[in-house]
Amino acid sequence: MTCPSRLSCYSLILAALVCASGIVQGQTPDAKSKGTGSIAGRVTVGAKGASGITVGVFGGDIYPRRAAVQTTTDSEGRYRLFGLAAGTYQVTTLAPTLVTGASNNSPYGSGKMILLAASESVEDVDFKLARGAVITGRITDEEGKPVIEERVILEPVMPPGGPNMQMSQQYNYGPMYQTDDRGIYRIYGLLPGRFKVSVGNENGGFSGSNGRGTFAQTFYGDTNDTAKAAVVELSEGSEATNIDIRLGHRAATFSVAGRVINSENGEPVAGVRPTYGRISKANSGSGAFFGGLPTNPRGEFRFDGLEPGHYTIYVSSRFDGGDFYSDPIVFDVVDRDVTDLELKALRGLTLSGVVVVEGESNKNLLAQLGRLTITAGVRTTANPPTNSSGSTTVAADGSFRITGLAPGKASLFIYSAENPNSRRFPPTRVEADGVDQTQGVDLQAGHAVSNLRVIISYGTGVIRGSVKFENGSPPAEARMYVAIKRDGRPLERGITTDARGHFVITDIPPGNYEVNLNLGFYAPALQSPQNPRQPLKQFVTVADDTEVEVNFTVDLKPKEGGP
Amino acid sequence: MMPFSKPGLRRIIPVILPVMLGVVLCAAPAVRAQKAASEKTPATLPEGTISGRVISQGGETISGATAFASPIGMGLQPRSAAIDSTGSFKFDALAAGVYAVSAYLPGFVPAPALPDEPRRYYRPGDSVTLTLIKGGVITGTVTSATNGPVVAAAVRGFRVKDENGQPEPFMVQPRERPTDDRGIYRLYGLMPGTYVISAGGPARSYGGLISGAYDNDVPTYAPSSGRDTAMEVVVHSGEEITADIQYHGEPGHVISGTLAGLVQPSSQGMGGAMGTITLADVRSHAVVTSTGAGAMTNNTFAFSGVPDGDYEVLAQQYLQSRDLMISDPRRLKVRGADINGVSMSLAPLASIAGRVVLESNPPADCVKGQANALQETVISARRFTPEPTPANSKTAKTESIAEVPLATANQAADGVPDPKGDFALRNLHRGPFHIDAQLPGTGWYLRSIALGPPSTTAKPSDPNIPRDGLTLKPAEKVTGLTVIINEGAASLRGHISAGEGQRAPAGLRVYLVPAERESADNVLRFFEAAVDTNGGFALDNLAPGRYWLIARAADNGEPAKVKPIRQESALRARVLREAEALKKEISFKPCEQTIGYVLPWTAAAQQ
After folding, report:
1. Nearest by CB: B209 against A109, A176, A415
2. How confident is the model at residue B164 (pLDDT cuts 50, 70, 90)?
3. Do B76 and A293 touch (CB under 8 A)?
4. A163, A527 in Cβ contact below 8 A?
5. Backbone Cα Rg of chain A
6. Which helix H or strand E contains B551, and what residues bound it?
7. B318, A7: Cβ pair inside 8 Å?
8. Three-state SS annotation for B349-378
9. What contacts A391, CB < 8 A, 6 or more positions away?
10. Ranges of H-type helices in A230-385
11. Residue in chain B nearest A149 by alpha carbon
12. I want to staple A221 with a disulfide (CB 3.0 to 4.6 A). Which of A230, A357, B216, B223 is the partner?
């Protein structure tokens, strides 16, 4: 990790933490009140109980990531976690050299989610683990010198037509995926399988502000061609050594400079941040985009460290870029610095209105939600596409005003920074002067949109339920997802069931709900082209301050006439 | 160390030492500007370019490195440039200004700064030589009580002493790497110095969702102890040291609390604003760990795995405006139990705003590069501990604990004026600050630093800012600081001529003090330079006038501990008294350049 200063290191770490959020949604256990609930089970490796394995239970809050309670397994592999209050927990073995069948396949690692009722004792939360495999090797440059702090990429090779397994993010970004000062890497805790190992950037590099060019992606087998890459075969507990890769040279990098002028009067525009990104053949302009430094008083900007390639650049409010936007300019970096780019900027459009909470019964709801932030993301009509967005805090009376937007179709996102249990409040309806704009607000050049009415829904209703299986039991790695529709319209409050098939969805507004159980998440055996399963449906009515129970029964008996 | 003798016993036996203008170690801004000028390679570098070279002390060719040029005080991101295969780099089209230039290469570290060397800044037109050295390595195996590997535990290396064995004066951020599946760790790219190593305790997050098995443990220090009896290992450049750890794995305590006062940015990600909470060990001055708090955490924070000890908790939030929000540092004693409910509250820091005024009075023509002079000036504020007086000796000590968090003990701010001359010094703690300037070239001298608009007649009742500094209240916004820089500075080059059979001691300093009685209180008329190993000295940016000149050794025999004369009134009075007695007078007209000056010195010239 490049850390020109301590400050930037901090921000990188915090950014990583922010990225890790927002996956588990559920009730936050009250850390202060020690409960009397417990969770118990057994950890096995092969057929034997595994002793001395640390098992931790984590609260529904992702961060801080500290285990609420942890223990180690006894000589039989058994564990029991005591003193738990009611809430949503993640039970996890903290043994990174061991793997479960799905560990690299699920964002939860080897964990199991448990919805724990007050004073409940949950038994048989078992973990069947296997010894993970290891890949290790050394990365050198064309002179045979070690390449330090370069990321190693593992790509599982799937049998043709099989499910598309992806490495979990947790593993991909771990420090073990980086070479050390000798160029050596060592990646452990891997599932058995076939892997391609590579270093460098796919589709050419993008070094951003780092300045030094990247290496072209080079696979084990010293080839740039993924089709010719040597495949590393890993069996359970095996160690593949000397998986060495010799790289070519780093790409040269160049600078790009220009200025931003006001298209109305030709005056320089200071303090805006042009956004630039590489256009690859695969995706035209929707790749990684970077906001650089703001333009100086002469409207000038400059970016360092661009590798040869095809790029787009435009002015956008997206990275706190000020109140201007522009059409994109496309340029190529070939073998020299690019100078004299000129971006013609226009003052951005304003979107203003009021956020209201649906329903008459609960007038103070808006205040109860805490400080809300509203963000408008605009899909522009420019070619190549540009991004424009703006956000603001919603005032106590519900009013808001977002500036600096580009023309296009704006989608609105509302969330609370103070209410971690239900952070997002998707608008159920958006109106401009009584006209429905829920599918996107039209922003036209030169026309501000005011009198917008953004209706969000909130309530104190709860849907609680469970899933039972008949004629068989689901694979251990099965995940089930419960989605809800209110008055026929999806409400973005779906949730994954816990390891026992229990679920609870809180803080939902009153209404008539359709509850859908989607099977087979992360469990291809339950959902394959040969065995399609429609979501199971139930209909319930939810009122504020009430809890509705919804139970599903899944029959695992193969369908007659099926293959 | 050479004993000091009485002035009356002075013997002058001149021995001419070779005069060379080598590396002059000096905190005086005058010499720094001179040094930058001497590195200029005229007629080759276009205006707006800083070029340079990265060399390695170990002889390795430096490739794959990146150079950074960070503009001072302009709020711009650093410029970066790839360093080519010959070790050269170039930043062109730089705006007029002042830049810090550094090089980054994984596994390498900057060569240790020479003692007393100021933070060096560069201006367009300068060329720079940066030296990188191969970092040291500490590696080893962490083993459990049952002799199994301790996997994915955080191993940290704390640098407790520098390469000269001096304790780290400021907060130390540890290096951290996890152990692998065999329990092996490897900390590389270490600055030379003395380290202690710990395993266990809260690990840095790499974006993973869960912590490790050892996060709630008290760290075990190598070879197998707590912090107090930790083994110290000395790391040299390029050397690899093995330090195995027998891991204990005892549960630690928790420090937890809440954070208030976060500033929500105008545009924000889904998580909202985030503050950084730092836990520092009071005795070792080391950052134990840091964590975040914000909307995502319900504005709560918690540190686990905390052993008994004395700690300081500090909260900070960096704003996009470059302002820093900070809490009061909280001192906590952990003694056998968790500490919950620590409430931290963020508040803005103090700042100083002002204007630099360039004057030509009387007109002089020895100034070059006048066009960018304002933007190439650096105004700095450095926090200092007031000299103890009977009245403040007690309070000064206790306040320094309460006022200055460990994390920011090195309190300083640099500002560069904009083209109009306006500058700002941000993010300053409460307390006293010395104000000084680094001048844009040799032809300028610092005439005055005062509050309010420039005026020719200073009243005796006006605060003497060059002498006393500015004392800031919490979050105080001082405005209207006027710094007047005048054309027509003089300069002096010379060497020490020691008595026959004698050598001038190392660490000798040359002082220039005002000979006019009425200027004795004008701190800006005091100048100093270190004498280099060949006896040479150089003084620049001198205000015209009459001076006494004296060379002297450190009073306590420790040259490294000599404070700048502008910052210590007792030293000023002493040097003034000695110089008056010595009666070595020198005067400078505007723009006068004196070279080849011979200053006699004998061992007896002291006391």
Report:
1. A109
2. confident
3. yes
4. no
5. 27
6. strand B545-552
7. yes
8. CEEEEEEEEEECCCCCCCCCCHHHCHHHCE
9. A373, A374, A375, A376, A402, B266, B267, B268
10. 365-368
11. B106
12. A230
Of B104, B107, B205, which is closest to A2 when you measure between CB atoms?
Answer: B104
Concatenate the DSSP letters of all residues of B410-466 into one string: S-EEEE---TTSEEEEEEEPSEEEEEEEE-SSTTEEEEEEEESS--S---TTS--HH
What residues of chain B lie within 8 A of the CB of A212, using their CB?
A: 64-66, 82-83
The DSSP string of A387-432 is EEEEEEEPPTTSEEEEEEEPSEEEEEEEEESS-TTS-B--EEEEEE
Residue type at A145?
K
Distance CA B538, CA B549 (A): 12
Torsion of CA B573, B578, B580, B584, to 10 degrees: -130
Indicate the residue type of B490: A
Residue B112: CB atoms within 10 A of its CB come to: 17
Q: Do A20 and B68 touch (CB under 8 A)?
A: no
| pLDDT per residue as tens digits for the range B6-35 | 333 333 332 222 222 222 222 223 233 333
| B212 φ/ψ angles, rounded to the nearest 5 degrees | -90, 180
Chain B residues with CB-CB distance to A170 below 8 A: 206-209
Contact A275, A260 (CB under 8 A): no
Rg, chain B, Cα only: 26
Interchain proximity A302–B93, CB inside 8 Å: yes
Quick: pLDDT tens for B53-108. 998 876 666 777 889 998 887 666 788 888 888 889 999 888 888 999 999 888 99
Band of residue B187 on the pLDDT scale cut at 50, 70, 90: very high
Asked if B302's CB is within 8 angstroms of A320's CB, the reply is no
3-state secondary structure of B30: helix
A343 three-state secondary structure: strand
Distance CA A260, CA A331 (A): 16
pLDDT at A69: 86
DSSP B37: H
Tokens found for residue B404:
């200055």
Bridge partners, B16 (sequence order): B497
pLDDT digits (tens, 9 = 90+) for B308-361: 999 999 999 988 777 889 998 899 999 999 999 999 999 999 999 999 999 887
SS3 content of chain A, % helix, strand, coil (to 5): 5, 45, 45
Above 0.90 for ipTM, yes or no? no
**Interface test with chain A among B270, B279, B320, by most A beta carbons within 10 Å:** B270
**A299: closest CA of chain B, how far (Å):** 13
Between A14, A173, A304, which is nearest B79 by CB?
A304
With the C-alpha atoms ordered B76, B78, B81, B82, is the resulting torsion angle positive or negative? negative
Of A484, A480, A492, the residue nearest A428 (C-alpha): A492
User: Under a CB-based contact definition with an 8 Å cutoff, are residues A150 and A179 in contact?
Assistant: yes
CB contact under 8 A, B212 and A96: yes
B108/chain A closest Cα distance in angstroms: 9
CA A260 to chain CA centroid, Å, is 34
Q: Kindly determine whether residue A18 and residue B269, on different chains, have CB atoms separated by under 8 Å.
A: yes
**Nearest partner of B160 among B148, B173, B149, B150, judged by Cα:** B173
CB contact under 8 A, A4 and B68: yes
Number of helical (H) and strand (E) elements in chain A, helices listed first: 3, 42
B334 within 8 A of B309, measured Cβ to Cβ: yes
Residues B210, A293: C-beta atoms closer than 8 Å: no
Say which residues have a Cβ less than 8 Å from residue A266's Cβ, sequence separation at least 6: none
Q: Which two tokens stand for residue B178?
A: 């996890």
User: CA–CA separation, B490 vs B540, rounded Å?
Assistant: 6
